[in-house]
Amino acid sequence: MRGPGATLAVTPAYTLTAQRLSHPVESYGYRLVQPDGRRMLPDRLAAHGLAGPLVGRLQREGEVRVAGRTVALEEVSEVRRGQRFAFVMDTRLCDGVYALAEGCDQLVIESTFLDEDEALAREHGHLTASQAARVAAGPGVRQLVLTHFSQRYGDPAEFER
Fold first, then answer.
1. Are the C-beta atoms of 77 and 38 separated by less than 8 Å?
2. Which of 57, 64, 130, 152 is 20 to 30 Å from 137 at the Cα level?
């Protein structure tokens, strides 16, 4: 991640980090990252005669013996990148926003204002829908979820525009 962030928790299932954001009151965004894993490749498993309980044993132990040959996990699987999720709320554009969003599978981010109120958004420490979309487009976010809409706008579809 870009910029300094704080690691809040590390477990076998995920790492949770936080980034300071830019808002009139202290505000933080969060990022959950699963560790990388392995994706089993059915055609390679079949080619090595691996099925059923042997596959589970291979995943636990890293290698198994089949028909007089040792088969390593790396021969029948590939690296699967862990999922990445970020939650960004109550902020104007800042380095922390970009650091949290970078390479996420899903980004939930505020889009309080529309473009015509960009100055008001900056003054109150919020993002416009277009700013949120540009943040997502830059670092390769796979799914963007906009939220935190101002009630000053009558038609929520305007945020999608």
1. yes
2. 152
Residue with tokens 């028909």: 67
Q: What is the number of residues in the chain?
A: 161
Q: CA-CA distances (angstroms) from residue 56 to 13, 20, 66, 71? A: 19, 42, 14, 13
And the tokens for 47?
């080619």
Print the domain residue range for 127: 6-35+81-160
Q: Tell me if 1 is assigned to some domain.
A: no
Residue type, 29: G
Question: Is residue 45 domain-shared with residue 29, that is, in the same domain?
Answer: no
Q: Write the CA distances from 32 to 24, 72, 84, 93, 139, integer angstroms.
A: 25, 30, 6, 20, 16
How confident is the model at residue 138, as a pLDDT? 84
pTM confidence score: 0.83
Query: How many domains, in total, are found in the chain?
Result: 2
